[in-house]
Amino acid sequence: MLNRETSTYNPYLAARHEWDERYGDFVTRARNWRTMAFICALVALVATGGVVWLAARSHVIPFVVAIDNLGRPIASATAEQASAADDRLKRASILNWIENLRTVTSDSIAQRKMIDHVYAQIANGSHAQAFIGDFYRSSPPQTRTQTETAAVEVSSVLPISDRTYEVEWVETTRDLYGNVKSTQRWKGSFTIALDPPKDERLARVNPLGIYVIQASWARIL
């Protein structure tokens, strides 16, 4: 009796079976690797998107710690963000401007820098520019420093409106030996305008973009 398998032997099917045995495993592996590569690329894309999203949303909160002269912390808190429109910055800017304007020092380099800072915070073509120019011509610090110095202590900076401030300060004049010649109280009115700097040069001399456009003062008797 003939074997059924022998009687049904097909060379084509046998060759196909041999192909599947030899190369089918390679084809399956290649398909699995392609699937794995696609999954890895998808994971990398999701991870990259997540990193970009976190970077766009993340922000740094400054934390300020005050220490004494021995290096011991005495106070700490998160720093508040402020813009040039913040009233505290306006008042601080006017205070520094008054001190630079009215101080007379024997250090000629420091005096020159203070004058430069004064003019850096005056709007071009404004009333304040002409007023301060007249003040420096009538009482030039370079001449006064040959016989005296003047120290300025601002006592108050009070807002009259959103752009005008009333400032009171005390000027102490001393001779070249440090003896007090006079102590005078002054009051002034100053109007400012905001123009944030758009280039690095202006940002260096007036980073907040606060400019004085009106200025006047008088001695308190």
In short:
By secondary structure, the chain is of the alpha+beta class. The chain is 46% helix and 28% strand. The protein has a four-stranded antiparallel β-sheet, with helices on one face. A two-stranded antiparallel ribbon has the order 1-2.
Structure explained in plain terms:
The chain is an alpha+beta fold. It has two domains: 4-57; 87-220, Nuclear Transport Factor 2, Chain: A (Roll). The chain has helices at 4-7, 11-57, 87-102, 108-120, 127-138, 141-144, 200-205, and strands at residues 63-67, 73-78, 148-159, 164-175, 180-194, 210-220. The strands form two sheets. The chain has a four-stranded antiparallel β-sheet with strand order 3-4-5-6, covered by helices on one side. Strands 1-2 form a two-stranded antiparallel ribbon. Helix 3 (87-102) crosses helix 4 (108-120). It is rod-shaped.
Number of strands: 6
Terminus-to-terminus distance: 140 Å
Question: Helix count, per DSSP?
Answer: 7
Give the strand content: 25-35%
Largest sheet, described in full?
A: 4 strands, antiparallel
Features:
7 helices, rod-shaped, 221 residues, disordered N terminus, 6 strands, alpha+beta, two-stranded antiparallel sheet, four-stranded antiparallel sheet, Nuclear Transport Factor 2, Chain: A
Q: Could you outline the blueprint of secondary structure elements for this entry?
A:
Layout: H1 4-7, H2 11-57, E1 63-67, E2 73-78, H3 87-102, H4 108-120, H5 127-138, H6 141-144, E3 148-159, E4 164-175, E5 180-194, H7 200-205, E6 210-220
Antiparallel strand pairs: 1-2, 3-4, 4-5, 5-6
